[in-house]
Amino acid sequence: MLKTTFPTLNLESSALGFGCMRFPTDADGKIIEDEAIRMVHHAIDNGVTYIDTAYPYHGGNSELVVGKALKDGYREKVILATKLPMWKVEKHEDMMAILDEQLEKLQVDCIDFYLLHAMNAERLELARKLDYKKFLAEALAQGKIKYPAFSFHDNYDAFMAILNDYDWKMCQVQMNILDDNNQATLKGIEAAREKGVGVVVMEPLRGGLLANPPADVVKLYESWPTRRTAVDWAFRYLYTMPGVVTILSGMSTMEQVVDNLRIFDVPQGEALTDEDKQLYVQVKDTYMACTKTRCTGCKYCQPCPMGVKIPSIFQGYDTSLMRADGSFKKGYAKISAEEADASRCVGCGKCERACPQNLPIIRYLKEIHAECTAE
């Protein structure tokens, strides 16, 4: 197992982290506990030392199963991370109450990395208003957490505002072959590295998208002198990236656990060659060539006066085009059920005037709506 270290903490971690958001489930959506625990134990027995869960995962049951999995000496072998659901916090006291609930569910006295969950610009303002710094100071003083951290979904400017607002010990960001210029961006990861804040990566496979590439990407990989699976290439892009300490994988089967352990059985200090870097450029360009809107999700077009969720529509549609066998009809149906679909567009043009990419938003909305509602 490739080992790494959180900067300034002198805390060793496995480069592969077990993300506990996608445990195996039965037909009713309930976690198959025995199998989930067997998978976690196998991962830890073979070198994984980072376990990540959160309050809402599996309808609130992930932390309960993780607590069971870490009994019998396994807690002492790992770095445990979970998250404070900021959307549930209404007053300052709620933060400690939720933390205490999580400690009980996990059956532990202390959580190693405690993250403010899914932070963005709006939640930063909420956290400030609720005096999150006082809460973290209290939790640290009481020995309930060791290292304050945050997970993130927004743009680079919001990331930098949050990063610079507190003495964080870790940040968790979305990064993969396609997202070098999205969300926190590579520039944000470099900023965290310069501040000595360790980076944990989520969505390394873009929700499975990179594990099931379209035919043109498959041809690129197969033409390369070094033969690796698409998943191999996706993880390799990240574990060679300066600043990245641990990469989370939401493993749903024992086969995925075993395969990931194989992928991370690599030498220390392995780096990308110039040829490898060129391959990633070609892979990203090939994925992006499949897309229609090229929306970056900056949300300058929001809020729409009619409530149309333009970024959700565009990014969902583009992602479906990049999948080998994808369709956006089901995703679009969910947006329609929320009364946020493109049929509500009145063509006012406010979105197009605000779009920094100068996208023909109105035309794209009409075309995507027609395609996704066709019989």
Description:
By secondary structure, the protein is an alpha/beta fold. The protein folds into two domains: 3-281, NADP-dependent oxidoreductase domain (TIM Barrel, Alpha-Beta Barrel); 310-373, no CATH class. Helices cover 43% and strands 15% of the residues. The protein contains 16 helices and ten strands. An eight-stranded parallel β-barrel has the order 3-4-5-6-7-8-9-10, surrounded by seven helices. It has a two-stranded antiparallel ribbon with strand order 1-2.
Task: Record keyword descriptors for this entry.
375 residues; alpha/beta; 2 domains; two-stranded antiparallel ribbon; 16 helices; 15% strand
Blueprint (SSEs and pairs):
Blueprint: E1 3-6, E2 11-14, E3 16-19, H1 33-45, E4 50-52, H2 57-60, H3 62-69, E5 79-84, H4 92-106, E6 111-119, H5 121-129, H6 132-141, E7 145-152, H7 156-163, E8 170-174, H8 185-195, E9 198-202, H9 215-223, H10 230-239, E10 244-250, H11 254-263, H12 274-289, H13 310-322, H14 329-337, H15 350-354, H16 361-373
Parallel strand pairs: 3-4, 3-10, 4-5, 5-6, 6-7, 7-8, 8-9, 9-10
Antiparallel strand pairs: 1-2
In brief:
The chain is of the alpha/beta class and 375 residues long. The strands form two sheets. It has an eight-stranded parallel beta barrel with strand order 3-4-5-6-7-8-9-10, surrounded by seven helices. A two-stranded antiparallel sheet has the order 1-2.
